Amino acid sequence: MDRGVGAAVRLPESGRKELAIQALAGTETLSDLAAQHGVSRKFVYQQTQKATAALDEAFSPVVRDDEVLFELAVTKTWLRQVIVALPLICRRSYRGVVEFLRDLLGLPVSLGQVHDVLQAATRQASAVNEEPDLSGIRVGLHDEIFQGATPVLAGVDARSTYCYLLVAEQHRDADTWGVHLLDAAERGLRPDYTIADAGRGLRAGQQAAWGDTPCHGDVFHIQRRSEGLANTLSRLAAGATSRRKTLQAGISRAGQRDPDGKVDVQLEQARHTEVRASCLARDVRTLVQWLRHDVLALAGPDLATRRELFDFIVVELMARELEDQRRIRPVRVALQNQRDHLLAFAGVLDIELATIARAYAVPEPLVRSACMLHRLPTTSPAYWQSWTELRARMGGKFHVLLDAVLQIMAGTPRSSSLVENLNSRLRTYFTLRRHLGGAYLDLLRFFLNHRRFLRSRHAERQDKSPRELMTGQGHPHWLTLLGLGPLQPRRA
């Protein structure tokens, strides 16, 4: 493979063009061409695609800049579509919408008109938001996000990213959460479990509304908090080293020791502080890495083993609290109090892996090994060595079982980070919040749930909206749902 890559890099432009021409001619197979030039088949495909694209462009009909491509009937409905689409798709302000219509269409529109259209769209969006049946949601992600000083209660489907709760409230206590979760339950929401951070109001509200529905811990927040502790201690250790070096350099420049020995005492104290700070930072960094890569990682040991490792980390942090109690104790207490919630995902994974083992009549340790395989990068020799060993032990069941394990892992969420992602998207719509007030959340929830993904790392989400993914049913374009459709430009 390395020789092929090197040959491809050394191949001049003229050689690449000749290779593409030979491939297009079809007189020789791609494998033969790759062997002749010492390159990979993938490289030959790439050059062929470039040549094909160049030919298509060369022979495509030339379109003049002033040629009419199509005609569009500018109606009142179409203008309302533009007024709604510009703030939502392009994140334009009210004045940006007015400027667009003035400069491109020569149409005078007031800020009041823009506001009225968006208010009407918001009322329709609020009605549409109440339509979908939420019974298909199996895992709900709950969190409290903030728009300024106002808390926003949010709930998102882990599989489809459909947002079923997004409302600004003055409080985030148990009663407030409970009321909204009861409302969602009336629309069919009854997930197998939810994922949330350690917020007391959130968890108490869910228990009051849904009884014994489990609420798993969110690993995202605790990992970020733990890594923040490790980073802070590392900076303190670096500062101690810097102070020691400064004192040492001062002694060297003086050329002689201080007669009273004060500088020597300061230097010795600095060295002692540096050693303690460096050891503490190194130990905590190691414990945090174990927590992230061995205990809270999706591909990992069974729940019982994770609990032992988790308890070990907590004990080791407690042993080092006296070194920096103000910083270490809050993290240690948070870990200790949330252990069972944070590791709940491991129990779900254990059940699913055991189900796979029974379905394929394979020993459970082998299924666990297939899960642990994904701890390794696919570019490492260790990955492929383990892959080969597992394939030899599983025989013809290997590929189908590996796919089943991958699906189970993909369907076992551990964090509510999708809500954090939602929060980052909401922040770009500040102008709507300023003009529409709290109702803008209804409009944004509608828009984000009904616009179709242009691209996604998950192939099943491509060209589908979160609502379509959640319900399994199609729906009209989001502008049509707002009573502003259909979208049918008339071709020339």
Helix content: 55-70%
Strand coverage percent: 5-15%
Radius of gyration: 30 Å
Count, helices: 22
Question: What's the level 1 CATH class of the largest domain?
Answer: Alpha Beta
Structural account:
This protein is α/β, with parallel strands linked by helices. It folds into four domains: 2-59; 66-212 and 416-492, Nucleotidyltransferase, domain 5, CATH 3.30.420; 219-342; 346-410, no CATH class. Helix content is 64%, strand content 7%. It contains 22 helices and seven strands. The chain has helices spanning 2-10, 13-25, 30-37, 41-59, 76-89, 94-105, 111-129, 174-186, 200-210, 219-254, 262-295, 303-319, 325-342, 344-359, 364-372, 381-394, 398-410, 417-426, 430-436, 440-450, 466-471, 478-481, and strands at residues 70-71, 139-147, 150-157, 163-168, 193-196, 215-217, 490-491. Strands 4-3-2-5-6 form a five-stranded mixed β-sheet, with helices on both faces. The protein has a two-stranded antiparallel ribbon with strand order 1-7. Helix 9 (200-210) links the parallel strand 5 (193-196) and strand 6 (215-217). The longest helix is centred in the middle third of the chain and has 36 residues, at 219-254. It is globular, with a radius of gyration of 30 Å. It starts with a helix and ends with a strand. The model has no long low-confidence stretch (mean pLDDT 88).
Kindly list the characteristics that best describe this protein.
492 residues; alpha/beta; Nucleotidyltransferase, domain 5; 5-stranded mixed sheet; two-stranded antiparallel sheet; 7 strands
